[in-house]
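In response to reviewer comment 3 from the previous cycle, which asked for concrete evidence that the modeling workflow produces usable outputs, we include below a single protein chain processed end to end. The sequence was submitted unchanged, and the resulting structure tokens are shown without manual editing.
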Amino acid sequence: MKKAESEKKHPNKTALDKLERGNPNSTIYKSRPNKSPNPTDAQIQAGETGNPHSVDNDMRKPASHNPTNAEINAGETGNPASVDYGKDPAAVKKEQ
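The workflow returned the following structure tokens.
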């Protein structure tokens, strides 16, 4: 049975419902995009690499470079609590 031309398309809609038509953020909007699929475990693990709060943090590879005392002291030259405060980092590196 075909609708008559004079018959309204949405006769039982309230004024608020009519305002919601065409709003992609509406909960009743039929044409809104579907949500993205849930990430796989591999995608989650890849996103957590380098995160110290991750449960897999203890499985990470240790750093291959251990800084020397001279490198640590050179990095501390900008710290007011350091004994090397105010010194040139290159000069501190050469001290030891």
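Residues 67-96 form one domain. We consider this sufficient to address the reviewer's concern, and the full set will be provided in the supplementary archive.
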